[in-house]
Write a structure and sequence with these properties.
- With 228 residues, the protein is of the alpha+beta class.
- The chain has 2 domains: 7-70, no CATH class; 76-206, 2-Layer Sandwich (Ribosomal Protein S5, domain 2).
- 32% of the residues lie in helices and 19% in strands.
- The chain has 7 helices and 9 strands.
- The strands form 3 sheets. A 5-stranded mixed sheet has the order 3-4-7-5-6, with helices on both faces. Strands 1-2 form a two-stranded antiparallel ribbon.
- The longest helix is centred in the first third of the chain and has 18 residues, at 18-35.
- It holds the Pfam family DNA_mis_repair.
- InterPro entries: DNA_mismatch_S5_2-like (IPR013507), HATPase_C_sf (IPR036890), MutL/Mlh/Pms-like (IPR038973), Ribosomal_Su5_D2-typ_SF (IPR020568), Ribsml_uS5_D2-typ_fold_subgr (IPR014721).
């Protein structure tokens, strides 16, 4: 695509610099690559030698995640599945992967596909973050991939101007079921959490220096000086 919106000045002004726009393109293609694992994706900046996104056709979702997001992400994922066929109309199937307690990141990554369409759902994201906040340290955020399939008439795609965020029929019930399953998985996998150990040597000289400090005498004004 060249000279995009060349005759629409207002739309063209909304573009940021090329580095930010390229980062958004890489993020979008990375999410598409792990969901559509039957298609090969490749994204390379003009003039660069190495591709920033490169995936091959794979029968395994984990292999696709490994090729796009790296080994450190793929080795710390757990399979999660939820399905419901309620007579009241709450019908959906969800399968995906969530990070375990050993995964450490500073930003939440939620790759959400509903009926094979890349979307966002802020309510679902908040519900998952609440579960992880009780399990992971405060500085750590989860990696979550979910694919939800439900009747098309149960999805409202007109709540956002760009249609990137959706609302679901029986959304509270669906989110509660997914949240419960994620919490159950994390609790059952909590015994596999690993920690790094570091040997700490006992230093006697440090304690001796504290004991040899002279006592603090009161100041002439009658107020005691505080020792820091």
């Amino acid at each position: 695509v060249e000279n995009l919106f060349y005759n629409m000045i207002a739309r063209r002004k909304t573009f940021q610099n090329s580095a930010d726009d390229y980062g958004k393109i890489v993020d979008l293609l990375s999410r598409m690559a792990i969901h559509h694992n039957k298609v090969s994706f490749s994204c390379r900046k003009h003039g660069a030698v190495k591709a920033d996104v490169h995936s091959v056709v794979s029968s395994s979702r984990i292999d696709s995640i490994r090729s796009v997001y790296g080994v450190s992400v793929a080795k710390n994922l757990m399979k999660v599945e939820v399905s419901s066929c309620d007579s009241s109309g709450c019908t959906f199937d969800m399968d995906g992967f969530i990070s375990n307690s050993n995964y450490v990141a500073k930003k939440t990554i939620l790759v959400l596909f509903i009926n094979d369409r890349l979307v966002e759902c802020s309510a679902l994201k908040r519900a998952i973050e609440i579960v992880y906040a009780a399990t992971l340290p405060k500085a750590s955020k989860p990696f979550v991939y979910m694919s939800i399939n439900l009747p098309r008439e149960h999805v409202d795609i007109n709540i956002h101007p760009t249609k990137k965020e959706v609302s679901l029929l029986n959304q509270e019930i669906i989110i509660e079921m997914i949240q419960s399953e994620v919490e159950l998985k994390l609790r059952n996998a909590n015994d596999t959490r690993t920690f790094q150990e570091q040997k700490v040597e006992y230093i006697q000289s440090t304690l001796t220096s504290f004991r040899s400090d002279p006592p603090v005498s009161p100041s002439p004004s009658g107020q005691k000086t505080q020792k820091v």
